[in-house]
């Protein structure tokens, strides 16, 4: 018997990426960006370890704001330091 896998649709992905600035605000979006939404797990990259730490404290707020602003339900936000953004 095969399990049915529910993927993430384009509307949800577009909601997170398209509404990110509105959902998290200018200050956070200047340092943290979404990189992947897989089902209900959102991966974000911060441009420094300090911003990654700060973002971890904001996870519940980010989840709430994405639901309010983008209409997207996320269960988990994984925070990483983005290698490409480090200078």
The multimeric state of the shown protein is single chain
Briefly, what CATH class?
Alpha Beta
Strand line-up across the major sheet = 1-2-3
Regions with little confidence, pLDDT below 50 for 5+ residues = 1-6
SSE pattern: HHHEEHHE
Number of strands: 3
Query: What's the CATH topology name?
Result: GMP Synthetase, Chain A, domain 3
Counting structural domains, the number is: 1
Strand content: 15-25%
- Molecular shape: globular
Q: How many helices does DSSP assign? A: 5
Mean pLDDT: 86
Largest sheet: 3 strands, mixed
- The fourth-level CATH homologous superfamily is DnaA, N-terminal domain
The level of helicity is 40-55%
How widely separated are the two ends? Answer: 49 Å
Category from helices, strands and their pairing: alpha+beta
CATH architecture grouping: 2-Layer Sandwich
Characteristics:
87 residues, 5 helices, three-stranded mixed sheet, 22% strand, alpha+beta, 3 strands, GMP Synthetase, Chain A, domain 3
Reconstruct the topology from this structure.
Elements: H1 10-18, H2 20-24, H3 26-29, E1 32-38, E2 41-46, H4 49-57, H5 59-70, E3 76-81
Parallel strand pairs: 2-3
Antiparallel strand pairs: 1-2
């Amino acid at each position: 018997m095969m399990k049915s896998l529910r993927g993430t649709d384009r509307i949800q992905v577009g909601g997170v990426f398209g509404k990110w600035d509105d959902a998290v605000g200018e200050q956070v979006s200047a340092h943290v960006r979404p990189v992947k939404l897989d089902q209900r797990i959102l991966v974000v990259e911060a441009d420094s370890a300090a911003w990654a730490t700060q973002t971890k404290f904001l996870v519940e707020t980010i989840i709430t704001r994405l639901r309010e602003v983008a209409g997207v339900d996320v269960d988990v936000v994984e925070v990483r330091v983005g290698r490409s953004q480090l200078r």
